[in-house]
Amino acid sequence: MTTTPVIINALGQLDNPNAPRSAEAAAELNPSSEQLTVDARTLADARASGLTAVNVTLGYTMGDMPPYEHTVHEIAVWDRIVRDNEADLLKVRTVADVHRAHREGRIGVIYGFQNAVAVGEDTGRVATFAELGVRVVQLTYNQANHIGDGSMAPDNRGLTDFGHRLVDALNDHHLMVDLSHSGENTCLDAARSSRVPVSVNHTGCRALADLPRNKTDEELRLVASRGGFVGIYFMPFLNTSGHACAADVVEHIDHAVNVCGEDHVGIGTDGTVTTVDDLDAYRDRLAEHVELRRAAGVGAAGERSDTLPFVLDLRGVEQFRELIRLLERRGYRSERIEKIMGRNFLDYAGRVWAPETSD
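Predicted structure:
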């Protein structure tokens, strides 16, 4: 492939994990957006990687802070980050904004949640979040909430009555319903009941690695059959050993393409572009972080102190180009690779987001 395609990371982060503030935050259970380091290296690495846009996690995911208030504050934090770096970043509200970011050589920042608890019992808050620029709402994290069950919830319930109302509200306001981290029945219920295509922005294929964070073929097929999107992550859950490599990423992409079709698969790395420089020091912090997650009941099966939350041979500024090279070696033609690297997410966004005027 001679030119770099539009590259959209359906779930990632902008951060320099080597900066002191970010390094300290890595050991905490639930770092806030204010602890991220969006510095010159973060921005230079993101641009050098070819990244066009990324869905970043903000707001309440877990912890003791008030979900709604914390989430509104985090949106303001990201508004400030984007405003302070307007030469490099662009807040994404529409598909047109992604094209604009690509055209201007900036990074599009898509605001997303990894837990919808901030809605509380009031679906009217969906309108507030939509107005503030949120574009992706994941229904649950690993545990159960009042919307449905996460992947680690033992009962594997489907959507609750409120969950159905929330999906309706998200449809009404043109926000993505993201089913990453959801339990199987919650995923199937939401995909069936949504009037708009849904997504699983960062996952793997359970047929290849039987872990709860990965999706079954039934889930993948249903999401795709209704016009949705599936993003494959660069995470340890791609291999039951806990030590996934680039070859595993390719295998999971290939399986998802075979199940979903080439028009519905992309990437959601669940990581940063800037690489960790000192892996030994990072492993020490990681062990503490994993133990905190286990003690709080929010960890996932397959998380251990030695399971890095990224793929060692597919990270840093070359991660996307290396994946393209591996897919080419797999025999994928340029058009299919372009779809996987970004076009499929963009097409899916066009089926969900309102064609409103950007800021």
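Summary: The CA atoms of residues 95 and 349 lie 7 Å apart.
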